[in-house]
Amino acid sequence: MAPSAAQRIVIENCSIATVDANDTEYASGHIVIAGNRIESIGAGRAPENLADVERRIDASGHLVTPGLINTHHHFYQWITRGLATDHNLFNWLVALYPTWARIDEEMVYAAAQGSLAMMARGGVTTAMDHHYVFPQGSGDLSGAVIRAAREMGVRFTLARGSMDRSEKDGGLPPDFAVETLEGALAATEETVKKHHDASFDAMTQVAVAPCSPFSVSTELMRQGAELARRLGVRLHTHGSETVEEEKFCHELFGMGPTDYFESTGWLGEDVWMAHCVHMNDSDIAAFARTKTGVAHCPSSNARLAAGIARVPDMLAAGVPVGLGVDGTASNESGELHTELRNALLINRLGAHREAALNARQALRLGTHGGATVLGRAEQTGSLEAGKLADLVLWKLDTLAHASIADPVTALVFGAAAPVTASFVNGRQIVENGRLLHADEDAIAHSTRTEAQRLARIAAQR
């Protein structure tokens, strides 16, 4: 529960990067939290005569930023990390789908705990999970993921995925790991109606999220878009991740991925796509025209040798872009704060070189950009009075960062910064790098146990 509206938390003597529309920053400032909202923010110390202050935090040596927002993930992959480490995307999928097809509710719950714990410890306040593997008889997988997020205390979007194109249809997943068209649509609608909260301070939201062009029928894409818009929720899928995907779309549909998405109703300001590595000028223009969002996953793209997404060109065109961890079977660290640095460095290997991204653009991708992509920019993603109190205190006065004068540069270019405190909805969930409402050692044990159990079951196939 968030603190009551009468209670205030004062954070002061800190550097602040608000990531608002003007990139307002304070070399030494304060933030006042009242209940689950940011009440005020400004330079210098907070007023001494504030009423009902339950806590004052001297944040000297810290940078305060909006909480990080993850826009693409697959939690269940936490229990298949470190496998198929030298594969490209298609070969990696072929290698791992037979194992993923054996997951069950207990495994998914443990994997979600591991994924969420790692992100929360590293400053993530809003997480998302694109879960699309629903083996027959595997239990309530969506419910397991949502329960783990609720217990961890993070704001959460479940992208309820689906697949109906299996091996017998020319897809990659085993036949028993996919749903029927009708079953996928019905289960997705049920999940939205049961779990989606449209309120300003919602802790759980649901999106409609068929997996990808090569694991989903055209009818599921088309009807999925219609379902999402009828229910008033967002749409998410994978798009333009590899050259193989583009070839697949041309062979099967007679057009590239972006044109295919547009033909099925999958471009629009209520849509965001993961990866978007192989986009030409026309594709980027279509995304910009329709305000279709992008989840940029630099580490996963590198791990699977997918390529370098044209993020600077997308931003210049006005495409909304956020950052994503992606599944931890293709980004074993499971951390989002390291993606700030990786996004900046990897994009500088592209055509724009040193002008590709700077430190503040990288921070914006991981905060306000992510909020925009998830449709929550009015509530979170920047530090402004009236917005939800989702924020992070990064400790920058230790050996790792103390000699870097600019705190945003220290956060993005430097080593992964320690999180002294992380607040979600006005409630602190991390203190000195440790979770306050979850047992990290117990989670580590359960994820290892479930990973071993899944490996044994998969070996018996």
In short:
Residues 63-427 form the Amidohydrolase-related domain. The protein has 461 residues and is α/β, with parallel strands linked by helices.
Q: Could you please describe the fold and organization of this structure?
A:
The chain is α/β, with parallel strands linked by helices. It contains 14 helices and 17 strands. Strands 1, 2, 3, 4, 5, 14, 15, 16 and 17 form a nine-stranded mixed β-sheet that branches. The chain starts with 7 loop residues before the first strand and ends with a helix. The model has no long low-confidence stretch (mean pLDDT about 95). Pfam families: Amidohydro_1 (PF01979). InterPro entries: Amidohydro-rel (IPR006680), Metal-dep_hydrolase_composite (IPR011059), Metal_Hydrolase (IPR032466), MTA/SAH_deaminase (IPR050287). Keywords: Hydrolase. This is 8-oxoguanine deaminase.
